[in-house]
Structures are given as C-alpha cells and as structure tokens.
Amino acid sequence: MPRVRVRRPSRDVSAAAGAAAVFSCSLGMASVALPLLALDSGYSGAEVGVLIAVSAATQMVTRIGLGLAMRLVGDWLLVVSAAAMLAISNGLLAWSAAVVPFVAAAAVQGVARACFWTGSQTHVVRGPGAAVGALARVNFVSSIGLLAGPVLAGALTERSARLALAVAAAIAVLAMVPSVLLDRLPAFSPPADRPAGRIWRRPGVATGCWVGASAGAWRGLLSSYVPVALDAARQPGTTIGILVSVANASATVGAGIVGRVRGPWVGRSLVVGCLVAGLAMAMFVPLAEVAWAAGVVLCASGIGAGALQTVGPAVATEAVHAEERGEAIAAAGTFRAAALFGAPLAVAGAISLMPLGIAMALVGLVIAVPAGSRTTGRSHAGPRIGRDTPVGAP
Question: N or C terminus: which one in the chain shows less Cβ crowding within 10 Å?
C-alpha cells in the first residue's frame, strides 16, 4: 500500500501562526479586562469610551507610517516589538489604573495592534503560495485566540481585573517566543519603476482598502452598538455575550472558507462578503428582540466580514510589486483602523437625529458599498488575483 506523504508546515509558517494565536489571546483578554478595570476604578462609561478611542486613534496613526517603517526594518521586527509593547500595556494596567498610566497603556496597545497585524500579514504574504491562503491561516488562528482570550479574562476577573491583565501581560511575553523564530526577511526596497502617486489610489489596492474599511466598520459596530441594541431589546447579559461570540466565531469560519476559494471566486467572495456583512448589519436592530433571529443575522454578517478581512489585504498585495506589499498591507490596514474608529462615532452622531435602527441600517448600507467595485487591477506584480491566480492554502 503506497505511503501518503503529508506536507508539514514550515518552521516560519508555524511561528507566524503561533505568534498570531498567542498575541490574539492576550489582546482578547485585554479587551474584556481593560473596560472592567476602568469601571471598577470609578471611570464613567463615557470615559471608558474615550480610553478605547485613544487605542483606536494611535493604531490608525501608527499604520500610516508603517509602510515607510518597513523600508527601514524587517517585518519580523515589528511582530516582536508588538508583542513586547502589548506586554508593557497590560503590565501598566495591572500596576496602576491612574489616569496617566491608563491613557499610556491604551495608546501603547493601539501601536502594538498596528505593528503586529501589519507586520504579521506582510510577513506571510512574502512567502510561497497565494496571498489569500496565507492571510486566511493567520486570521483563522488569531480568531481562535480572540475567542479564547475573553473567556479566560472573564474567569480571572471574577477574582480581579488586575489579575487578568497581569496574566495577559505574561501571555504577551510568551508571544515573543514564536515571533523571534520568524524568518529574517529583509526590509523592502521599492522598485525603480514605481508608479507615481499614493499607493492606495492604485487599482486593486484601492479595492482592498475599501474592503478593509467595510470589515473595520463591521467590527466597530459589533464592539459598540450591537450590544447596545441587544440591551435595548431587553436581552439578558448572557444572551448578549453568546450572540457576540456567535458573530466572532462566524468571522473565523468566513476567514477559513475564503482561504480555500480559487480563481474568479476570490473576486466574487469580495462582492458577496460586502453585501452579506453590510445588509445583515442593516437589518439587525429590528430583529434584536428575537434572540434566534438576531443570531442568524450576526452569523451571516460575521461570515461575510471574516471573508472581507482576508480578501481585502490579499487583493491589495496581489496588485503591486513584491517589494511594495508592505505598503499595500499598511494602506489597507489604515482604512480598516479608520473605519473601526469612525463607524461607532457615525452612529453616535446619527442617533441624535434618528432611531438607532435607522442609523445602523445606514452604516450597514455603507459597509455594502465596496461590492459595487470588484476591480483588482493589474500591475507589474503579476496576474490579477480574481481571475488568473489559483488561490488557496498551498
């Protein structure tokens, strides 16, 4: 009987996946423990929102400069530094909840998030195989960490939010171990025949950026007004937590599915993902009073958003020269971070003029808008991802 040869992942692929899983676990713990510590320390709900906004703002600003940074240092160094910064951020909060350490910790967390996701995504798309398959693996394992982290934090905060953050800091230190095992790929060197103009305006990259914005807006609503709508619909806290977890788990499924699509289905998944994520979120509030209906809608929107957060950066990187992939990833990430920051603010401003349901419906329709533009463009980097490139896990 012939032997079946099993293809094992390389050390670099395993290191990238391990770093993503452990970093995400620590980040997921902080996402639960940080606001709980703030509330326990006497901060108001509005002040907690400001602290979270600080993290989002520093993430967005940092991403703007990462394209240039990756011309000076290797992407692996960003990943290692991000794990160290997350450990510092969580450690600061475990030490003190005073205003200055709290703001500093939130700001450092935003920088860490920007550096890690840009660095890790850039690193994996520089390896062999298609960009979508590589990004799907990173997004899949990171989603597992983001699911496990809040559960662990929730259990630890029964004793103390500071304890949860101290453990999160230790886990972030552990993330440095697989990070230092990444291949030492050199810094990027832009080609001499580089097209004029900003990279995010190029065909393909522009599509990836706007798709990334849709994914960011979805995540921003899930983390803010989805729980608010469920609470207004008199859903119990346990049900709210389960429904948000359903959406997160569905995003993991969406990232896994899109990593296996091939050829023209990559472009089609972009269209379907935008439509499903946006339209499902648009109809969410009227269904929030019925738990199973809300779960179905969140499940559908999560699958669409999970596909978008993988396809967006992949489309952007396939449309540029290999030495410009870091800039393309950073550009798509900047749009995602801006939408993550802006979508909740847009709803907050709109609800002073209209009901929450209409405000979220309008933002949901905006999330679906990039479905009208699926052009990935063609550059000297090679074939278009949506038509000629076989895509999937190598």
Answer: N
Class of domain 14-180: mainly alpha
Of 219 and 292, more confident: 292
This prediction's pTM = 0.74
Nearest to 309 by CA among 225, 370, 227: 370
- Residue 379, SS3 per DSSP: strand
CA distances (Å), origin 94, targets 77, 113, 147, 149, 304: 26, 19, 22, 16, 36
Task: For residues 356 and 231, give the distance between their C-alpha atoms in angstroms, rounded to a whole number.
Answer: 12
Token duo for residue 174: 């552990």
The pLDDT tens digits for 186-226 are 877 777 666 656 766 777 777 778 888 888 888 888 877 78
* Secondary structure letter of residue 201 according to DSSP: G
DSSP of 116-141, one letter per residue? HHHHHHHHHHTSSS-HHHHHHHHHHH
With contact defined as beta carbons under 8 Å apart, do 314 and 258 qualify? Answer: no
CATH superfamily placement of domain 198-394: MFS general substrate transporter like domains (1.20.1250.20)
Q: What are the extents of the domains in the chain?
A: 14-180, 198-394
- Between 161-170, 237-246, 337-346, the lowest mean confidence (pLDDT) is in 237-246
For residue 46, the SS3 value is helix
**R_g of the chain computed on alpha carbons:** 20
Whole-number Å distance between alpha carbons of 66 and 23: 19
Asked, colleague to colleague, whether 14-180 and 198-394 share their fold, the answer is yes
**DSSP annotation of 200:** G
- Tell which residue, 85, 84, 106, has the closest CA to residue 38: 106
